[in-house]
């Protein structure tokens, strides 16, 4: 079949499917309207009759349950309508003709973003990209193939495989593809201008990516991938796949993504809804730590404070100290400190209150033996509860709340202190480190180097049950998490995980490979996967970036573009003029996105102001930003991590010492899709 015939056949099927989708949407509109009327009638009935409902509330309960059922049913219809409306834009992107073993005729499977059948129970017209049969499209060329269905492995032969591009309900192209996802299609997708939203890759998933997405056997996947290999996209598509295949046990509310910042969170937020799933929880680990330590201090520094200080006031000794406090060695020091803390933290004495009597020796016996497995700062609560229960049983009366509070104070007073900040200072003394400032709680600010050691100490002193609600955790930028942070994550989460990163994109002046200690910390088998093919940059940009850290050029999709432009300027005015001259955003032939990436927040702010003064429309991103806009963005290299831009201008002042310059240049270079400019002030 030639391309014209494939195109005509594609249009015919597209018209059939979109017609049936519209019919389905019309029926859903009517059902939703009728359901809404039923809900309104139930509300009216309730308010007109609730005073006459039976005294035991049975009728009231039945009415409330009926209302809840109808509301849930309507919500389900709304979700289905939203999915079908989304499918109208592009109902399918692939087709596989498959002859089952022992059969003569090929069965045709169209693959799309979601499942669509004319009526419930009927054979789908479109198969969800996550359905077992859809694996044929991603994993095989024409010839022998198989897929794993609920009934077992289905063997056969692919006789034809096609790809389509449909936008706004219009077929743009259709053709036969003899290999996996055709490289020409991939080049066309990647050669397009960048967007302010991460693109879903459902129509161009590569075979090695598909193996990761559909992996349900390994509980912990650690993906080490080069820049531009699609790590984040693959992780999000994997979440969509897991949600699709385990509906009974896993919902969107059960998934948590640890993301580096709010802009990145916004950049990826649309992917799961596009794939037919609800949004998942997202948070920054630094923000989580701040909330957890609010009882101990008024504020905590975050990673950005530390990076800014490292670049503006380079201090090799301070960096060594920072690394020591995040290390396995520090973890061991905390455990050694805790082993001796019981004696130095306690001041046992007799307790008496209205006939409740416990001797010092009895309390010591309970504290060290009966309740020895309870965390230290919660142990006296257990001792008190035991004593109170014993008293109430013997006396046949319960203590009042105000009496219990007095007793609690008596038991709590046996701690020399319960202030985590003070106990952490005791730890620093014990380890030979400088103490934190001795100031009231409202004036305490915890330096970033101390945030996670203190949080780990808190959990060891108070305990922390695993987040049972979180059943799958995604950790992005894994290379930026320290040993101490992983120890905390191991305490918090015992669920399955997808962990991903690139060791070359570390925000430290020393590269670390977390895979050397991750299995030991998590205490479970970690499946390591390497993604060594880059799809983002042109050959020229990827080769240049690899040279910045002395690594081999990754495997690349052969997409060529403009050579990287390097230049040195004496005057800042000349540098800004060159950026203005080279900038191509907006207009018919312009790019969608461009970025000027500076080293520090101060430099980024000044650059944004100066470019705005030259009449450019500038979007400035700082640590408090939460959105990524089209056009020209100015920000720091560390806030640009994970994002991509059509044009990237990297600017730095060669006269200023910056221990992170090499890392920063690499991160900036790998953000560029089409054009890269490396400009220095000398």
Automatic annotation (TrEMBL):
Q: Where does it sit, as one GO cellular component term?
A: cytosol
Give the species: Mordavella massiliensis
Q: Name one GO biological process term.
A: recombinational repair
Residue positions annotated to bind ATP are 225-232
Q: Which PROSITE patterns match?
A: UVRD_HELICASE_ATP_BIND
Keywords associated with the record? ATP-binding, Helicase, Hydrolase, Nucleotide-binding
Protein known as: UvrD-helicase domain-containing protein
UvrD-like helicase ATP-binding domain span: 204-538
A Pfam family annotated for this chain is UvrD-helicase
Q: Name one GO molecular function term.
A: 3'-5' DNA helicase activity
Identify the taxonomic lineage of the organism of origin: Bacteria, Bacillati, Bacillota, Clostridia, Eubacteriales
Task: Extract the coiled-coil ranges from the record.
Answer: none
